[in-house]
């Protein structure tokens, strides 16, 4: 009878160790990335096995059409983007044999974005002031061999600037490389 209890105890310990190893293999990691599509730098800091703090400094691109002048304007603006991300499908991806390295998975995020005033604007079309946006996002991040990184996120948000507060769609698509 004692042998059975010892075997059961050893089985439980080994099963728990296997579970811990599997969870560790799909946990999120700290990483530093360079974005190429919208030039910028990203640092993603692991807070727990499935949660990260994503910090980005980049250049944003905007477009506005002014019907009064019948002309359009493209403008660039620096931005700071902060996200609290929760990766929710890492185990499922790992069980299917899909890549989870470098935080390759789907996530939901609370997003805060500050856009500075435009550095290239045409005053004839209006004054592009800084704005503050809060959003809830769903996204995916994939890092392929060679550390090529693709990321997409989208969701509803609220934008605040000195003239207006409005609901806005928020979306982002980036291409880049994971450096470390």
Present the secondary structure layout.
Layout: H1 2-25, E1 31-35, E2 40-46, E3 51-66, E4 71-87, H2 90-95, E5 105-115, E6 131-143, E7 148-160, E8 165-178
Antiparallel strand pairs: 1-2, 1-8, 2-3, 3-4, 4-5, 5-6, 6-7, 7-8
Structure description:
Helices cover 17% and strands 53% of the residues. With 180 residues, it is α+β, with helices and mostly antiparallel strands. The termini are far apart. The protein is elongated. Strand 1 and strand 2 form a beta hairpin.
What distinguishing features does this structure have?
elongated; 180 residues; 8 strands; alpha+beta; eight-stranded antiparallel barrel
Strand content: over 45%
Mind telling me the C-alpha Rg?
Answer: 22 Å
Strand order of the largest sheet: 1-2-3-4-5-6-7-8
Number of helices: 2
The quaternary organization reads as: single chain
Mean pLDDT: 82
The largest sheet is: 8 strands, antiparallel, barrel
Number of strands: 8
Structural class: alpha+beta
Amount of helix: 10-25%
Distance between the termini: 53 Å
Q: Could you name the ranges where pLDDT drops below 50 across 5 or more consecutive residues?
A: 1-25
Order of helices and strands: HEEEEHEEEE
